[in-house]
Amino acid sequence: MEELLQETDLMKLSNSTLDRLPEGVLRPQYDRTQLKPGIVHIGLGNFHRAHQAWYLHRLMQQGLALDWAIIGAGVRPYDTIMREKFLAQDCLTTLIELDPSSSTAEVIGSMIDYLPIEKGNGPLIERMAQPDIRIVAMTVTEGGYFIDPATKGFDQTHPDIVYDSQNPSTPRTAFGAIVEALRLRRADETGPFTCQCCDNLLGNGDVLRQTVVSLARLSDPELADWIDSNCSFPNAMVDSIVPATGPNELALVRELGIEDNVPVTHENFRQWIIKDDFCAGRPDWDKVGATFTNDVHSYEAMKIRILNGGHQVVSVPAEVLSVGTIADCMSHDLIGRLFTKVATEEIAPLVQPVSGMTPKDYVSLIHARFSNPKIVDTARRVAFDGSSRHPGFILPSIREGLANGTPIAGLALVEAAWARMCEGTREDGSTIEPNDPFWTVLNESAKAARKDPSAWLEMRQIYGDLVDAPRFADSFAHWLGLIWDNGLEAALSSYLDA
């Protein structure tokens, strides 16, 4: 890596410096002063900026969708820091595409404001209630939709949901803010907006509908019926590997000569499959590579089972074995082979092909994407929130494997490795810091499972009735015992050599 430029040599990213960006860095060709808002996006993480915001930016580069600019929003106190960073550089972001053979950089300008973060979410509610907002989108992580893990229904007992149902005009959650904004729009006859989920959930639009409508029903059943009948919640599959921003990413943008406190790195792959169900209009994202189709389910099932499931397959053992990144996992003899065998033999046979792609070919594609050494995506980031990701990405394949009589031993091994990870130490003796909203419960269960493996599977909020499925429970117990007796590498070798 070249020696970093001194801070005084860096060009501060802003509207006024766009015409002075370093040579080779692409920039907005549209007049940002002429942009008008059409979308409020809640949860301005890296993925959103490298995905939805990028697609919109690409349309704007063609002189299209100039009345669909994004207004950023958040609902938690820590979003205030992100807001300050964005506003200090006029809501611009540098995207750095990292391909094994090359890299490119582009500044995108499709976001034009970031709402204040206030208790009660007044500014967010007020802005969403305005008629120019036609889409409210969000990326709030898979575990943020108040889903009961056992029933997959709405968890109306969560303290934040109880609060919002009792205080609908000053809610804590994004969903409460959406409900209140829609109440105002209904009263003012402004009309509905589309609620667009951009998280990795099977049937993500259906999940968002369930959360919003169910929350509304707790305080105003008539409003809930109006939302259910008039708002749209399109299902979509979103895909691009986008690491968190850390010292490496900040160094890369500084090497370009740019001072940007919120840069994003991403792979040279994007996919966005969307059901064309937008009650108040939409940008023509299909003109820049998105696909509108009624068959979203097949695409999202392939991606969630193989890519998102595959991420758990490799990141969990990596944490136990002190392997740093996903690319490192793929070059690790045991973990890389684990992905290939589990994905090929236990996941892909349960996945339907989509236009132009078989499950087997998709496994090869994901193997190549995971192996990109320029994408510094840590195993710890990918293994985060396993209590949501395993039920969404791994357990469905186990259930179908049990129902269809296909192999599930490797998936059971992954679950045993997760139990080992949640015990809180790596095999080199270092500590695994809490990495899940329910870490205390997971940690206690993992420690108990060292003597009694069923203690882990008795977390029915995660595993449901899988504890009662002998083929899975026995395999899990076998692997967890082997891991504790002989080490994870011995267990992986045993599975791979079988």
Your description of this structure?
Its EC number is 1.1.1.67. GO terms for molecular function: mannitol 2-dehydrogenase activity. It is an enzyme of class 1 (oxidoreductase). With about 500 residues, this protein is an alpha/beta fold. The protein folds into 2 domains: about 290 residues, NAD(P)-binding Rossmann-like Domain (Rossmann fold, 3-Layer(aba) Sandwich), CATH 3.40.50; about 200 residues, N-(1-d-carboxylethyl)-l-norvaline Dehydrogenase, domain 2. The chain is about 45% helix and about 10% strand. It has 21 helices and 14 strands. The strands form 4 sheets. The chain has a 5-stranded parallel sheet with strand order 7-4-3-8-9, sandwiched between helices. The chain has a 4-stranded mixed sheet with strand order 2-6-5-12, with helices on both faces. Helix 10 crosses helix 13 and helix 10 crosses helix 16. It is globular and about 65 Å long. The two termini are about 45 Å apart. The N terminus is likely disordered.
Which tags fit this structure?
498 residues; alpha/beta; Rossmann fold; N-(1-d-carboxylethyl)-l-norvaline Dehydrogenase, domain 2; 2 domains; four-stranded mixed β-sheet; 21 helices; 14 strands; disordered N terminus
